[in-house]
Design a protein that fits this description.
- The protein contains ten helices and nine strands.
- Strands 1, 2, 3, 4 and 5 form a five-stranded antiparallel beta sheet that branches. A four-stranded antiparallel beta sheet has the order 7-8-6-9.
- The longest helix is centred in the last third of the chain and has 24 residues.
């Protein structure tokens, strides 16, 4: 048995902000993917994944009991497949901000949900929101509280524009420039980030009036501007707004940036060779970078592994 592939995702803009109704833009990232599988001789990783699926299936059974109108699964088949040793075979790194649990949630929904909303039908806003709600409840098993966006992106495999929490739509993003010098890239921090503690820090900070004011007047403002610029293909304006956003993040989200990167972050702002921002909840994993000249950024970040995500 081998199910269809589900891809990782990158939230280009909107981390933390979408909790407070900023805009967001999420794109599929086909470099990493995962699928449900059964092997005759399972590896140690497969056995671990299978054990996790046992717990996840119990959680889904509880979810179905407590909220029967939201979603129904073929739980009997799911349990049989798990007993047969089914696991999630994934190249998506965990704790890196690229949606490892999102792809798993999408795969389980695709295979076992009854009366599922499919990619092929006309995706109205109501259907998108219903999917997002289902996925949010499913993914909460992994993160405590989930927006449902990662699985939604993985399931549909299209860019998604978040206008606000209850207003999302498929987005057309400008096509990439083949020989463009500019790029969006991933920088490997070399450590794993845990989502739940980072979100907890953010929620604690939200209790402080100055932090809330900064979020609304600066963080959300610059994030929204970046989303608009990116979708309109206005690269000049985009880099001006990313620089501002990078600055705001460095000044106000320090716990989410691994300490050894504070200097590197500032250096990008000072030299304009690159600008860094959080990828997902931060605390480790990938850091997202933007540059108008990838060769320059590569030289400045020669000690780190970079992966290009999008070319300008």
């Amino acid at each position: 048995m081998k199910g269809p592939l589900f891809y990782s995702k990158i939230l280009l803009f909107g981390e933390y902000g979408i909790i407070k109704d900023s805009k967001g833009l999420s794109i599929p990232y086909n470099f990493y993917n995962g699928a449900l599988k059964v092997d005759k001789i399972p590896s140690e990783e497969a056995i671990k994944s299978n054990e996790s699926l046992v717990r996840f299936a119990k959680y889904l059974e509880e979810l179905q009991k407590s909220n029967p109108s939201l979603v129904k699964f073929d739980l009997d088949t799911l349990k049989i497949d798990i007993e047969r040793g089914m696991y999630f075979d994934s190249s998506i790194p965990q704790g890196y901000g690229v949606g490892s649990s999102g792809a798993l949630v999408a795969a389980i929904y695709d295979e076992y949900a009854q009366d599922k909303i499919t990619v092929l039908e006309n995706l109205t806003r109501d259907k998108l929101l219903k999917l997002k709600k289902i996925f949010g409840e499913m993914e909460s098993f992994f993160h405590g509280k989930s927006s449902g966006l990662d699985p939604l992106n993985s399931y549909l495999s299209i860019p998604i524009l978040i206008n606000s929490q209850d207003n999302i739509e498929p987005a057309g993003i400008p096509s990439q420039t083949e020989n463009g010098k500019g790029a969006v890239f991933l920088l490997d921090s070399g450590s794993i980030g845990e989502t739940a503690p980072m979100v907890h820090i953010f929620m604690e900070n939200m209790k402080q009036e100055p932090f809330r004011k900064m979020l609304k007047d600066q963080f959300v403002k610059h994030t929204d501007a970046c989303v608009d610029d990116f979708l309109q293909g206005d690269v000049k304006s985009l880099f001006g707004n990313i620089k501002k956003l990078s600055h705001v993040v460095l000044n106000n989200f320090k716990p989410m940036i691994p300490a050894q990167f504070h200097k590197l972050w500032q250096n990008g702002i000072d030299t304009n060779d690159y600008y860094l921002k959080l990828c997902g909840s931060g605390g480790g994993g990938y850091i997202l970078g933007f540059t108008e000249d990838f060769d320059k950024a590569q030289k400045a970040l020669k000690d780190y592994r970079l992966e290009i995500v999008y070319n300008f």
